[in-house]
Amino acid sequence: VTATALKLANEALLTSNEALKLSNEELEKFAYIASHDLQEPLRKIQAFGTRLAGKHREALGDQGQDYIDRMLDSAGRMSKLIEGLLSFSRVSSKPVSFEEVDLNTVVCDVLKDLELRVQQSGGRVEVGPMPVVRGDATQLRRVFQNLISNALKFARVGVQPVVRVSSVPFDQLSPGTTTLPPTGAGWRITVSDNGIGFEQEYAERIFELFQRLHSRVEYEGTGLGLAIVRKTIIRHGAVITARGTPNEGAAFLVDWPTRTQPPT
After folding, report:
1. Strand 249-257 vs strand 162-169: parallel, antiparallel, or unpaired?
2. Mean pLDDT for the chain overall
3. What pLDDT, on the 0 to 100 scale, is given for residue 166?
4. Collapsing DSSP states into helix, strand and coil, what is residue 114?
5. What's the angle, vertex CA 242, arms to CA 238 and CA 244, rounded to 5?
6. CB atoms within 10 A of CB 88
């Protein structure tokens, strides 16, 4: 390959990357604007539907009541989807100022919020020492809240859910623990559980928008949570992967380099 050909290839790659970046930014702006504009008419549907169900329920008859209940249920699901899309778009659109974040404090705050859910599940969350990283504390709190909530939600019937949150420096990782071994200084942060797990072939699919491995009847959710998690992790200069075994559990591994910079 000649120097000229290599230069042309690099220039073409840079041009493609810029075009892709611009396209992604436009899609994110569209998602934000579309979701934001959908909120107001949806609120009216919910408000008038609730009034109708409250003041005229008996006059509607059994079939009419069923229609109203279904409408309000669908409107509620749509509201959650819109909020999820807004959260997804805000990960990149919201300016961030990275600072030193103590993940011990972040996880502790998340567990306070999830205290009732942990009690209701009959399970427990075990947390080991966590590192201090550079990042956005609010976004990182959302990451751990989502991962721990999922671990509790996807528990096996009749099995007490146990969630473990841990970290280990890169230099203490055993060889062959990942197909993409981390280099340099950093931490591997793991959130694992003993829940229903999943087939490893779906490890990438679960991070995609609106992707669900289980029906909404079995497990509630929008299919946006893990997409938001991965986008947040990538925005922080880190990488997240998933491992699962059916009926044994799942683990989410975040490889976090010591030095990360806010995106430009």
Report:
1. unpaired
2. 81
3. 95
4. coil
5. 165
6. 22
